[in-house]
Specification:
69 residues; Alpha-Beta Plaits; binds iron/sulfur cluster
């Protein structure tokens, strides 16, 4: 699973970083960043929860077939 964050649309609520800190964090300006575009398998459930919790729906998750980068 990979994550794409539309950083320009983030309003800085902080929910994604609270829910799934393995994948999301906050930058020095208070907006979300992605630590790793590749979501570790153990964090996928929380990444989905972060995605569904984002109030402006700027978190996108993609499931790739084995072998895709
Ligand atoms: S949940 Fe959405 S709006 Fe809130 S910090 Fe994360 S990306 Fe930004």
């Amino acid at each position: 699973m990979k994550v794409l964050l539309e950083e320009n649309g983030c309003i800085g609520c902080g929910l994604c970083a609270q829910i799934c800190p393995y994948v999301f964090g906050m930058d020095e300006n208070g907006f979300a960043i992605v630590h790793s575009k590749q979501v570790p398998s153990f964090a996928q459930m929380l990444a989905r929860k972060a995605q569904s919790s984002c109030p402006v729906a700027v978190i996108h998750l993609y499931q790739f077939d084995k072998g895709d980068l």
